[in-house]
Amino acid sequence: MDRRRFLTQASLWSLAGILPAGCTTPRLGAEADQSNILVLVELNGGNDGLNTVVPFADPTYAKLRPRIGINPDQVVRLDDRLGLHPGLAPLKTAWDAGEMAIILGVGYPDPNLSHFRSIEIWDTGSDSSEFLAAGWTARAVTGRGGRRTADGIVLGRPYVGPLAGSGTRTIVMESAGEFANAARRVTLPASAPANPLLAHVVATQTEIRKAGDDIYFKLQRPMPGLRAEFPRTGIGWQLSNAALLIASDVDVPAIKVSLGGFDTHTNERNTHDRLMRELGDALAAFRAAMIERLMWHRVTVVTYSEFGRRVAENSGQGTDHGTAAPHFVLGKAIKGGFYGQQPRLDDLAGGNLRFAVDFRSVYATLVRRWWNGDAVGVFGRRYPEVGFFG
User: Fold this and answer.
1) How many domains does the structure of the chain reveal?
2) What is the dihedral of CA 288, 290, 291, 297, to 10 degrees?
3) What is the pLDDT of residue 340?
């Protein structure tokens, strides 16, 4: 991150698209479609849920985490038993507005503690012993919604994850403006090659060129500068670009961003404290930008991670791979509060938390209520919905 890139981003805001006219009431269920936008926030490495949503009133927490536990005086209290890490204090405004849900104890049966396999399970929505080729988001959006700019956009870490799938048009970029300019320089042949492999390459280049043209021209439309300020961090940069794309009315149902570094085996507090500050500041800035642009009603933000961490701290003042963890859902359409159940710290499974909410229940709720999609068709079975939509 440097000053020049942020000044470039600020100038792009002055060139972004005019807001579409219309109602600012969220559309849910039968009234919803894929003009509703889902922003996926991957917390890469396995986020420590107990130091994210802190059970400060439980004496077992302090007993098992004498060195890395969050002091009760530092916790941003949400009720008389649970509170946020102090770095997430900027999200208290969304919580107080009823626009932030915290889903407690999210996990799945027979959890896998490998980074690679567990994130694959989360990305595809599979059982722990099941292998699926396409991501859950790709299955939900591909083939629906007619001709749009893309089925998904990935910002930052070039890992498409839940947007991977045959026939899914997913764009990976670092910057909306840089992608648009680069894509418009793609040269296309006058006719399709006879060679099937070359024809596929040309077809892909054509899609990139079309997407680049669409984003470029939408960024040219005049719009006043943005007052909301994004932090000068990687996740801040990604969410500023997500906000730019959404405010410019780029037609895409899903945008993925990521924040890495959560594999905190040693010296957890220094690393995790920084990551929580970066996450809290960036999400608060994104919410402020969407409210300012009158687009907050069209956006739902959800966090996910491959697993949580073990309950007890280790000898390196860190935590090892665990299981269940809380996750956040934010948006104008959200009915704020706690969902699920806080896992008991005195009833563990091999030192790990027992999950309360299957992560596919979260996904199924998003597919059905936010996109009016066929959740049973996407996941192959019915999962009980979580009631975080108003």
Assistant:
1) 1
2) -140
3) 98
Domain with 148 in it: 28-174+225-379
How many angstroms separate the Cα of 81 from the Cα of each of 58, 59, 90, 164?
7, 11, 20, 39
Q: Quick one: tokens of 337?
A: 């509060």
Supply the pLDDT for residue 64: 98
Give the residue-averaged pLDDT of 330-343: 98
Residue 58 CA to residue 54 CA, distance in Å, equals 9
Q: Please provide the size of the chain in residues.
A: 390
pTM above 0.90, yes or no: yes
pLDDT of residue 11: 44
β-pairing, 337-340 with 100-107?
A: parallel
| Residue 327 domain-assigned (yes or no) | yes
A 10 A CB-CB count for 57 gives: 15
Selection from 338, 329, 335 nearest residue 301 by Cα: 329
One-letter identity of residue 29: G
**155 DSSP β-pair partners:** 173
pLDDT digits (tens, 9 = 90+) for 93-137: 999 999 999 999 999 999 999 999 999 999 999 999 999 999 999
Q: Is 352 helix (H, G, I), strand (E, B) or coil?
A: strand
Task: State the CATH number of the domain containing residue 61.
Answer: 3.40.720
Q: Which residues contact 161 (CB under 8 A, 6 or more apart)?
A: 40, 42, 119, 123, 135, 154, 256
pLDDT for res 9 = 52
301-321 residue pLDDT tens: 999 999 999 999 999 999 999
Identify the DSSP state of 29.
G
Exposure letters 258-292 (e unless 16+ CB within 10 A, then b):
bbeebbbbeebbebbbebbbbbbbbbbbbbbbbbe
- E strand or H helix that includes residue 386: none
